[in-house]
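Just scan my protein:

. . .
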Amino acid sequence: VNVVEWNEGLYEKQLIERTMDACRGHVDVVIDFGTTSRSLHRSMQCLSKGGVVFVMKDVADRLLPKFSRRAEELQIKLKPVELGSLEQLNELVELVASGAIEPPPHTVYPAEEAMDVVHKLCHSQIQGRAILRFYPAD
């Protein structure tokens, strides 16, 4: 399983290329719970034929009519998913805590390296999330 974080500050082409590079080609499933027209369009471009994009039901009602024809042309599916419950979130946290599933990778960097970190992120040289650590000024 490959998890690719889409930083909205990047251009569409870069985001699609980053996804295709990380996954070594088109993907079968995209879970797009921050769904906007922009992210749904991007998700659809990353899918292989027969692939599925899962979107939250509340935005699916608004976006699926706009994208259903294009989905048919690409031979992909757009599927709405109901919002999860607190119980499901607790189960997910337990699965991560037990090591049954792994969260997306992250690396912590000192704030002084911010310029270098941003450069590396823009060139897909950092996998997962980059977190800047700021120390209190004493």
